[in-house]
Amino acid sequence: MKYFKKSFLLLLTVCLFQILSAQKLLTGFPNGSTPKEVGKRLAYHFIDGRHELYAGRWIHYAEVCTWNGALDYALKTNDQELIKLLQDKFEPFFTTEKALLPPMNHVDYNMFGSLALKLYQITKDERYKTLGLAYADTQWDAPANAKTEEKAWAGKGYSWQTRLWIDDMYMITVVQSEAYKVTGDRKYLDRAAKEMVLYLNELQRPNGLFYHAPDVPYYWARGAGWMAVGMPNLLRLLPADHPDRPRIMEGYLTMMKSLKSHQGERGMWNQLIDEPDFWPETSGTGMFTYAFIVGVKEGWLDVATYSPAARKAWLAMVPYIDQRNNVTEVCIGTGKKNDKQYYHDRPRNAGDLHGQAPYLWCAAELLGE
């Protein structure tokens, strides 16, 4: 019996040592690659940047994503100056820049509400709450002039903005999740979870990856990245007994296992995940890295397997930031197309906010609680 106890304690000690060692892989980064340094570079660079507009008229969702990331970083570092600058950047939307607010009639536009709701949680300024909830609620309340297909989705309890593009699993879930955080109203959480399960059932393939859309059978990195970020963010909020939690967790774990197997030797993922001859793409890599980091921190992913992978990816990502604090090798905005060469030939932008955002998400997450 004594031998059994000693063996058990030894095994337990070894296991704890391995877990702690793996967890430490997400700290102790070399100078120039620490999440605090990288996050500061990108967040303050965002402050100085011009608005990125959608269709030349309204705030683009990529800017909202980056703004949210900068706020998360500012909160983790308790950078009050940065919080104030980010708040000041928003203030004109109530006055001189009100015309730049996106209309409440498209999945990419309505996610703007997530930013207002995040700012409300920081400031308790009711103006943010009113604006943000309007975007969250109109994402579900079909307008009178909605198309037949849109009304059909609404009739089934889904967002009338449902289109089954993989991108939607961040655009829809982020604003509904922030509305839940602000109000505590379970309907917002249930909406996001119901929508997530629909997209999982329609788009996830047996190998754990996702088509860009049902009629576009390509594993586009950033497209899949929206799902990779949306699932763990939602899982953090879902109660243990939520009926949709098991399906979402299954989808998440299956995806993470597949992503691990497709990670490149240097730590990156390619523009099309399963195409070794395609180029390493930074926005998708940042999103997948974020998903690994969250999974390790929450205990959903094996630390000995995924901590080294996350560290490797982060260290591979940092050199893609140029001297102007722009993330390079970012695929530009990409609509679906059933053409493999189309994805290969997409232009790559330096400083594109599609890439700046996931870098900030990773930096904030690596900084701990």
TrEMBL record:
GO terms for molecular function: hydrolase activity. Keywords: Hydrolase, Signal. Residues 1-22 form the signal peptide. Substrate binds at residue 167. InterPro entries: 6-hairpin_glycosidase_sf, 6hp_glycosidase-like_sf, Glyco_hydro_88, PolySaccharide_Degr_Enz. GO terms for biological process: carbohydrate metabolic process. It comes from the Bacteria. Pfam families: Glyco_hydro_88. PANTHER family: UNSATURATED RHAMNOGALACTURONAN HYDROLASE (EUROFUNG). This is Rhamnogalacturonyl hydrolase YesR.
